[in-house]
Amino acid sequence: MKIAGSKKLKRQMAPLFWGITRKEKRFVVTVRPGSHGKNTSISSAVFLRDMLKIVKTLREAKYAIYNGKVIVDGIIRKSLHHGIGLMDVIELDGLKETYRLVPKNGILLQPIIIDSIEKTKKLVQVKSKTTIKNNKTQVGFHDGRVLIDDTNVSVGDTCVMQIPEQKILDVIKLEKGIQGLITRGVNAGKIGTVDEIKEGTFILPKRVNITLEDRQIEIPASLIMPIGKEKPVIQIR
I need a surface site. Which of 135, 179, 191, 235 has the fewest CB within 10 A? Predict the structure, then answer.
């Protein structure tokens, strides 16, 4: 079965956070539509070769991926085009390091090494909540997951999820006083305290006032991920 969409992307059009050089071959392996958006994720092949630099060529990346050496959120991924994105946990068979992708220093996605005991936990943000057949609640998350679950959550909240079982362990509400991580924009990766939440209007989206060190800014609520009351509940730095 043929899957729609191009397998290649011009290097000049690739997101900057991929970290690829611009003057080599014309094309690079792209991200197929899936769990994360194309502009907010990195393909498995590019992650290995250009972000981690643990392989030197696309051929070496193919060998590692096709042989099941790349594990994302506890599941083996054998596609060069699988999109790896915000808060994903990556294990590489044969290596002791475990990685998590987080925003850092204004860059959308950067890998950090985390303790192995944390590889079964992941932060996922609620992006949708709907009532379906038999009055059950369906919750959609930022990484494409969809669960039928009766946990009390609202859009904008963060769930601590056990992976790969997809079990919600805890909920971090988007509320005043919570610690929030900025996920996109020039302040990506910065953590601050939420001071005020302003409900959206017909014209303006829901917005948040957040204090970053010695200054306060107002940004769309969609750019804030709640991460804990006093400090992050899992390792994100």
Answer: 135
Pair 162, 192 in one domain: no
pLDDT in tens, 121-166: 999 999 999 999 888 999 999 999 999 999 999 999 999 999 999 9
pLDDT at 34 over 60: yes
Output the DSSP codes for the chain: -PPSS-SEEEGGGS-GGG---SSS-SEEE-PPSSSS-GGGEEEHHHIIIIIS---SSHHHHHHHHHTT-EEETTEE---TT-EEETT-EEEETT---EEEEEEETTEEEEEEEE-GGGTTEEEEEEEEEEEEGGGEEEEEETTS-EEE------TT-EEEEETTTTEEEEEE---TT-EEEE-SSTTTT-EEEEEEEE---SSS--EEEEEETTEEEEEEGGGEEEEESSS-SS---
What residue numbers bound the domain in which 38 lies?
8-118
